[in-house]
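Before the break, one more example. Copy the sequence into your notebook; we will annotate it together after we see the structure.
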Amino acid sequence: MTIMNRIGKARTSFTGSLSKFRSRNETDPVIWEDLEEALLLADVGVATTERIINEVRQLAKEEKVTDPESILEILQRKMIESLESSNRELNQNSSPSIWLFVGVNGVGKTTTIGKLASQRNAMGQKIVLAAGDTFRAAAVEQLKQWAELSESTVVSGSEGADPSSVIFDAVEHAASKDAEIVLADTAGRVHTKNNLMEELQKIRRVAEKGDGTVTETLLVIDATTGQNGLIQARQFTEAAQVTGVVLTKLDGTSRGGIIFAIHEELGIPVKLVGVGEGVEDLLPFKPTDFVNALFD
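Here is what the structure looks like once it is written out:
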């Protein structure tokens, strides 16, 4: 499975936006405005777009490039270089490693955990799922269904229980069973509610009081939310020490440029992308494949 044929909406939108740019005469002074418009329409963001355009203009000048197609080659190269600059590996340097999944309601945290559990099980790893979303019974049931598919164990508590204690118990269970990873679900929360964000800080503290270490805090963002995802990312990063982003529903949006905004403005790498409903549709994010798909 590759990302090339799964981001059709983003690719169609981006190439469509570039059509005006491609039709310009190389001496046309508004050529850069067209390129800026294309990046903004892709939801790359104002600050990131400005930086990319400035760098491409400088390189075009140095390389004495004036025709649109050559300029696009420079743009493609710079976009790949930008995303390649950070580590996108999922960190598993302790046993058990704890991977916390955070985000607002409805972005696909529980489904992402289930898919990842199935993939890791297929790799021969022993996984424990922590049902830290204690406010939504459906989330616990959903996690149990995924556990059956992935041959994993679920640790849950009573409805309304302290999520920190549930995740702590899951870590202790994982340690006793020599499980490598605890995938910890958390309740969806509005990033503007201070008390909920403080609870995330508590969850992280308590999770590390036992035998495990939090090696990843993965913020799950719905790609269709566009720039609002950047606002979420900023707030969650401050509260939960986010180490990476999982961008879901990338197959259903024309605004994949949010990947660049998250990376550039917050310094957080996108580590996984969701491009469909199947287990195999959760993919490691590969910048070269993604950018090439946009320009294909």
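The mean pLDDT is 88. The chain has eleven helices and eight strands. Try to locate both features in your own notes.
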